[in-house]
Amino acid sequence: MTKKSILKLNMAASDSADDSLYPIAVLIDELRNEDVQLRLNSIKKLSTIALALGVERTRSELIPFLTDTIYDEDEVLLALAEQLGNFTPLVGGPDFVHCLLPPLESLATVEETVVRDKAVDSLRAIASQHSQSNLENHFVPLVKRLSGGDWFTSRTSACGLFSVCYQRVSNNVKAELRQHFKNLCSDDTPMVRRAAAGKLGEFAKVVEKDYLKSDLIPLFTALAQDEQDSVRLLAVEACVSIASLLPTDDTEQLVMPTLRQAAEDKSWRVRYMVADKFTDLQKAVGPEITKNDLVPAFQSLLKDCEAEVRAASAHKVKEFCQNLTSDTRETIIMTNILPCVKDLVSDANQHVKSALASVIMGLSPILGKENTIEHLLPLFLAQLKDECPEVRLNIISNLDCVNEVIGITQLSQSLLPAIVELAEDTKWRVRLAIIEYMPLLAGQLGVEFFDEKLNSLCMTWLVDHVYAIREAATLNLKKLVEKFGLDWAQQTVVPKVLQMARDPNYLHRLTCLFCVNLLAEVFGGPQTVKLMLTCFCLQLLAEVFGGPQTVKLMLTCFCLQLLAEVFGGPQTVKLMLTCFCLQLLAEVFGGPQTVKLMLTCFCLQLLAEVFGGPQTVKLMLTVSVCSC
Fold this sequence. Notes:
Low-confidence stretches: 1-20, 613-628
Mean pLDDT: 79
Distance between the termini: 91 Å
Largest sheet: none
Helix content: over 70%
Shape: flat
């Protein structure tokens, strides 16, 4: 930074005697502070400084000063590049937006990639705010300078700027821009060619169709045959955009030879990119080319020697089949796709099997009931029994797709035994996945079928040795009660839950408490049910906590407070509960008279607070307690 820039800014901040500008002077001073964090904080408040200085001083003093600060830490430069993208109103609007170009041009040439990318983003943002004359006089020369820069950093940044200015310039300037882009596509540096390949599809969308075929298609072909696989794989992305812009005949003639070559490329990374973009390519080229060219290519990718390519292809199976035309869909799937899918079910790589399991259930609605039962169900069963937990999980999570096609009867006969087996799997995460799916499965099966086949499983999970399973099982019970109703719960669930209160394992008794707590939320109705659950809790607490008197006392006080909140009804109910608690306390605390007296006094105090009614009621209670 120059002394002249610093002096100007200091004068700008000190010209006025107004004390309100002192914070601005501090921010300006921090812009050149040795502490990186202070400089960073000041950069993030540039808009405040600019507002205080005004548009003229911002243009004439602040912007030149910022241009001089380009040689700074990367995090400071990143913040500066981001701030300048929103600076148009602070320099006087669109008529003066070109004054932001010098600092952003310098930022677009720095070595750090994230700074360059942010500078390019800001340049793209302000390009639309230039008038046509300013675009040709200021922005396009910047693009040309970056394109012809000595360092590859400037040339890579230039690649992202052609598309935002091309459509708004004259034909002569357009020809110059196409030539500059062509030079970048054949640059000696692989990083530049990679950047050009990444922006080729974007540039193709704004170029006239004639020039697309005459100028850009040859560039696409050359990039797709580049010696660097990092360049070739980015050309695949451009293929999607170019194919969507051309009619079918031109696509077949100009694009498909290159695409076929990419699908069989010697580098697995290029083939992976083709697999990853396959459904986008399918939509771009149309149904006829898909039938003739893409189906064999997809088969090849599903059988690729690299697991990463097979996994990426497997992810696209469902979407690819859905995008096929209705007249050829079933034939192509049964003849070309399904044999490959059968091989992938038993693939040696678990990532491939997991990717397939996440989408294979979606083939059921496409193929229909008969084909699903005959061809897909054996594959589902094989994957349900796969040794990889993630494969089983993906199958379980998508059972509803199959149920909608083949019906619950067929599903229960074919897949339910495997699900029951998974419910007892040694991997607790698999059991957890089954539990989480159980409410949905219960709704599909119905009450009778559920009680017959799966109810015992749900109760078994409550005493599982893994806490996460027990916790999920209690939530599962709550959801089942919400789905099947209170009558079902009282007949089927509540008796079994209360039976756990006598279990010798304290963990199971605690699980019982958790269940009671959740079921109380669902019941939320008659006071009788609440009273049963509350009395049960009191009794269970007295059994569970067989320790010091202090613990018992704390629990009893908690129960009294809870009862007072739950039963906000007539005084009679409160009186019944209080007497019950007094009786329980007398039984629990069979110790010295002093303890009993303390408890009695505590109860009197509590009763006086709860029953804030007539003196007669208070007197009756006092006499009752004293006699007790």
